[in-house]
Design brief:
Layout: H1 10-17, E1 18-24, H2 25-30, E2 46-49, E3 62-65, H3 69-80, E4 84-88, H4 90-98
Parallel strand pairs: 1-2, 1-4, 2-3
Length: 153
């Protein structure tokens, strides 16, 4: 995501606490460059979960997995060496959430509405998942943001 800013120190927080990244094949095929993670500030093991690892382009530092999502998390956690496994896939994230394998969710709201892609935690007919806010005084508070469309962009 270009043309946006993040709170000071955010990228450093992630680079220090991330031990491995787990993503899906759709995201990987769209952005097949592990050196771009956190603007290139992070390097480490990257795992891509796919139904077709045989047709994936071999890339240094990237392991293509074809297994159950829980097994993929186990492999990534082992590689992370006690640090966080960051999940870069709404589909994998949804599956892990449904199985109780998500410890924490970080949402970065960027002032852009994408017209394409996979919806975050899209689960038609699924049960609501309550979240607890981890920053601030009221852990059940709603977070309000307001934007307006920028003409001509």
């Amino acid at each position: 995501m270009t043309g946006v800013t993040f709170r000071p120190g955010l990228v450093e927080e992630y680079t220090e606490t991330t031990g491995a990244v787990l993503g899906g094949r759709t995201g990987w095929d769209a952005y097949p460059d592990p050196t771009g993670i956190y603007g290139g500030a992070w390097q480490g093991p990257v795992f891509v979960l796919t139904h077709h690892p045989e047709d994936a382009q071999p890339t240094p530092g990237v392991t293509f997995l074809s297994c159950d999502v829980a097994e993929a998390v186990r492999i990534a956690r082992e590689a992370a060496g006690g640090k966080n496994v960051e999940v870069f896939s709404p589909t994998i994230g949804r599956q892990l959430l449904e199985r109780g394998l998500i410890d924490e969710i970080s949402l970065h709201i960027v002032p852009v509405l994408l017209g394409d892609g996979i919806r975050l935690f899209d689960s038609p007919g699924g049960a609501p998942v309550r979240l607890e806010l981890l920053v601030g005084d009221d852990g059940r508070a709603a977070v309000d943001v307001r934007y307006r469309p920028v003409p001509g962009e």
